[in-house]
Amino acid sequence: MPELNDPEIYQTVLDGLQTGVYIVDRNRRIRFWNEGAEQITGYLRQDVVGRFLRDHLLTTLDEAKDLDSDPEDPINLVFRDGKSSILDLSILHKDGYRVPIVLRTMPIRNSRGMVVGAAESFEKNRSASDWSRRQAAFADIGCLDVVTGVAAKSYMETKLRESLTNFAELNIPFGILLVQVDRLDQFRASRGPGAVRTILRIIAQSVENCVRPKDLVGCWGEHQFLAILSECREAEVFLVGERVRKTIARSEIEWWGDKFSVTSPVGGAGCRPGDDLESLIARADASLKESIENGGNRVTVLS
Questions:
Q1: If you placed Cys at 175, which of 23, 44, 270, 296 could pair as Cys (CB 3.0 to 4.6 Å)?
Q2: Whole-angstrom distance, CA of residue 174 vs CA of residue 152
Q3: What is the residue range of 246's domain?
């Protein structure tokens, strides 16, 4: 069919995909940005087309690196070796929270086989996609905290008791993390309650994006979140806590044109024989207090 020879048809298809797709030239200047990329990153095409990747439009957890000179950067591999690649990583949404994605990079060649550009496609991984479904499910049963978008404390208490029962009767291990936001009272005084609500929502989404689909994140105390880590032994709780802490520290909040970051002390505990809700929470709370007393922005899991 001659109609299918029209290149505009293929651009229309690419533009309408839910998968994010963008194209850069050899100078790493963005030449194309589709609707999927807009939805996943929050950046509209008019925000990014014509700009360079070095402008931190797709900031990963390795944002300290100079990606233009990093030999392992996927786009540099394309331009140097013509190699395609697939990576799991986390990018910074325009609203400031981290989004885990699967990123595929491939070369674009001209008629002589020379690499003249690179195309990258990306989509949310499973845990990021579960965020919307969980919100809808919590709303349906009246257990959604509307400020943060995660489960309310009452629901978390119910699920924590279920986990304790499963541990006592079936020996299914689990751990918990208490995550608190540093200096939130200062932010409230200097920027107002609207900024605090934004911070709490971004932190909640960042924690949610750090854990697995079978784990659960919800509100706990004031300025606190609780993560229930299913089938997670005490030795692994610290590792998850470190991932949470680093992700929060690298998130970015924008409020009335001002960009700032926040940090979070984290306290963890693994469930032990004889634990009830009070003893488990008390151990996690003691760990959290030690993190705070040692300067915050650190993880403690007391033995």
A1: 270
A2: 20
A3: 128-301
One domain for residues 194 and 268: yes
Residues 32 and 10 sit within 8 Å (Cβ to Cβ): no
274-278 contacts at long range (C-beta below 8 A, 24 or more positions apart): 275/164, 275/167, 276/164, 277/157, 277/160, 277/161, 277/164
Same domain, 272 and 178: yes
Residue 21 clears pLDDT 90, i.e. is over it: yes
Which of 44-48, 121-125, 169-173, 229-233 is predicted least confidently? Answer: 121-125
Please compute Rg for the chain using Cα positions. Answer: 22
The tokens of 283 are what?
């151990």
Q: Are 36 and 44 in contact (CB under 8 A)?
A: no
CATH of the domain at 107: 3.30.450.20
pLDDT tens digits, one per residue of 76-105: 888 988 889 888 877 888 887 778 888 999
Joined tokens for residue 19: 């998968």
67 with 145, same domain?
no
Nearest Cα to Cα of residue 148 among 207, 101, 188: 207
* 130, pLDDT greater than 70: no
First and final CA of the chain: distance in angstroms? 70
